[in-house]
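Final report, closing paragraph on structural work. Over the funding period we assembled a curated collection of sequence-structure pairs, and we close with a single example.
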Amino acid sequence: MEKVLKRKGKGAGAAGFMYYMKPANLSAEIKKYGYDYTVGKTLGVYAAFALGLTILSLLFKLKIPYALMVGLSGILILPGVILSTYKKRYEQQRFSDLTLYLEQVLYSFKKNPKILYALKDTLEIFDEEENKMHKALVRAVNIIETSFTRNAVEDGLKEIEKDFKNDRLLQVHKLLLRIEKLGGDFDSSILLMLEADRQWAERTSLQMKAVAKQRRDLVIIIGLNLMVCAFVLFALPEEMTITGYLLYQISTMCLFIASLLIYARIDKKMGINWVSGED
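Its predicted structure, as stored:
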């Protein structure tokens, strides 16, 4: 997968458990995805988690030492979950930008079969300066306009391909280069490419919906599991209560921690690079 946020000198494990423990570091890392995430938002997530844990601890009669162990586990796990949430948004936005680019650059080229014109026309849609596609298009146009080498156009298009590694993008650029070089009747070729791009976008969108459904199902399963456990606990007669036993306290603590770990693990694996199709 494209290493968007790779840092030098830090292992993944060390970064996950130590580096992101500091809210300022987490905010700075999320900002690299293009989102403004304040330290206050991180503290708000921690506060919500603490409130939820307090309610569950009272409901399941979990004693303070064991509840604190769950809380410590949550503090270690939550930064990764927060980062994963914004990473998913980032990848979805990149996919959306790419599909819009593929469609618009072909329509613009159809109006005027010059790649530079098509890129400039497409750039008008991506008017946010912090947008990744906007930046790539600006670099591409600048190279084509200022370079006097034979491969200026190819080099400009490579700036977009560098940020959006995608087979459909490569095929569209190949088609544009061939038409600009050879000319001729190209309307049917562009229409076929537009249809192929549309089908790819639809297939990927369906995959995105399926992954989102899996995530919702996971949350529902974890919630139902906790509800069943709570129901069994409260269904027991008072004289048969088990909440005071050490085994109950440990197993309940492990249930909470396991639920957090399972969600975090599966949620991370669902963070797919929709542009390249890799996880």
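The two ends are 6 Å apart (CA to CA). Confidence is low (pLDDT under 50) at residues 1-13. We thank the funder for supporting this effort.
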